[in-house]
Amino acid sequence: xxxxxxxxxxxxxxxxxxxxxxxxxxxxxxxxxxLFEMGYAIRGQMILRNINRExxxxxxxxxxxxxxxxxxxxxEQTTIAEIxxxxxxxxxxxxxxxxxxxxSDQLDSIVINDELRTKKLDLxxxxxxxxxxxxxxxxxAVDTGKVCQDDPNLPGGNPTCYDNCPGDxxxxxxxxxxxxxxxxxxxxxxxxxxxxxxxxPDIHVSRIDLASLAQEMAIQNDYQNCLKxxxxxxxxxxxxxxxxxxxxxFYDQSQLLGLFRVGDFTFLDPxxxxxxxxxxxxxxxxxxxxxxxxxxxxxxxxxxxPGDSSKNIWTGLNKRWLRWxxxxxxxxxxxxxxxxxxxxxxxxxxxxxxxxSTVSTFAPSGWxxxxxxxxxxxxxxxxxxxxxxxxxxxxxINSFAIVEIVSYDLNNGIITxxxxxxxxxxxxxx
Length: 430
Description:
This protein is of the alpha+beta class. The protein has helices at residues 2-60, 80-83, 85-93, 210-231, 298-301, 331-339, 343-346, 370-382, and strands at residues 98-99, 116-117, 133-143, 182-184, 195-198, 242-253, 261-262, 265-266, 271-281, 296-297, 311-312, 321-323, 360-362, 385-392, 396-409, 414-421. The strands form 5 sheets. Strands 3, 4, 5, 6 and 9 form a 5-stranded antiparallel sheet that branches. The termini are far apart.
């Protein structure tokens, strides 16, 4: 009886173990499959990040005519084709008509379009009707100058204003001066070319707040400028520019096994992957919209080419200057415009200054005084190439030219200049 009892107990335990194993097995298999899927997703994320970093490294590399050292984005240009966004995409995903020659050949079967393919990531159709991937390239240009409104080099400046630098790089100066700041990004009207999207940007929406990031960069720049001016009040701050290129990549990666499906319901299939890379880039401020308030008539430009003899660019303008803001009608504003060409961007009351803009003219009391002459003398002494608007009427801008001021006789309505570039289309929006 004892043996029979032990035998029956043993059989019962074995059956119980089989039942328990049968109950636990699906859970174990589900966990195992989950580990595989998680590992596959992590692999895709890591490779997508590597592709992004490699693309961003090319984008911020200085542009060179030597193909061996050719850089990525020429951000002094103002059209998508000339800037070179497509070069960065090709570098990341391969050349048209090839398979697996871009850095993304680590991934499975990327298909950007029918001609641009790589083998390893099932990233199809950046150009197709229903793409599963998106690439967004954004450029933010930030260049700030004087930090406080009562800068020692401004009229009536306070020599101690830089004693109050912000406590850290997240704070603004208590008396911040912004009129000489140049902060540009694609969310500003006329500067849409500072961003490039390919794929499905309606679904994969950028997660970068360009305005907030630009403001953060401006505060950091002001903080550094404040420290520099504090140690040397006469240091030249222009040229301490900084900008960034941000590349975002979205990829809807299909599951490895695709078993997490019940009918039409799918759990995380595809798996949404996202990566961004932000890298610093030196943005040349002279390639951006800085304009001097010296109007040039269309007639003056007729038949005048670079290399020709100097001309009086003030002909027919009745000794009048431009003013970016209709409320700025005094001599101090004229002097500020001549010393700070970025007011054309920051203070223009008509929106975004560019071709097609209308700007009023004025001749404030003292317009031919010593402060104005000092500003012109500085341009002559430094032989600076300046951007001036070309147009007609009162005053409708048709184009911009680059000139070098040679001499002047304000009382007789003469500002003589040498023509450097007849039509400058790089900087101010068209």
